[in-house]
Amino acid sequence: MKMKTLVDQIEGLRVPYIVGISGFGGSGKSTLARELSHGINAPVVGVDSFVRSLDEQASENWEIVDFDELFESVILPFKRNESPLNFCEMDWQTGKRDRQKIIENIGKIIVEGVGLFRRPIIDYLDFSIWINLPLEESIAQGKLRDKENYQRNNDEKWDGIWKKNDLEYFERERPMSRATLLWDTAIQTN
Can you give 51-118 as a three-state secondary structure string? Predict the structure, then answer.
């Protein structure tokens, strides 16, 4: 599917709507969210904003992300047509989730990230996209991105805790079966 076709399909939804994008770590969720954001003129909220702590050793099934806070601060207020949406996101410099974020509710929003297609959030998504890239390819892509874009070698995390979280989430939540659309990253996105 081309990006224009996806944009047309989503713009056919009745406002207000939430588009959710999920997939394995490194699969291209943020990239697709940015491209789609330009196409439908909607803000993007990443689940990374709701990371509880930078200590990832105790995380299972992506529970390092405060999905309850995402639901209470973004999803529900959006569906109640509240504006602006106001929440605290992770400040990656200080390691604290205390950076104030304000987003105007314009009737459409994209929420993207790992572990997203879980209850109750999945029940509030009007359109959900699973990035259909196998785990090993996603990990390779994520490792390369971290080294090239962020000058970070996170190989140990990619092969360890992040892979473990992705596998647990995939087995427990069956996100592909919950998606409106499987997005093949090998297909041209223009």
Answer: ECCCCCCCCCCCCCECHHHHHHHHHHHHHCCCCCEEEEEEECCCCEEEEEEEECCCCEEEEECCCCCC
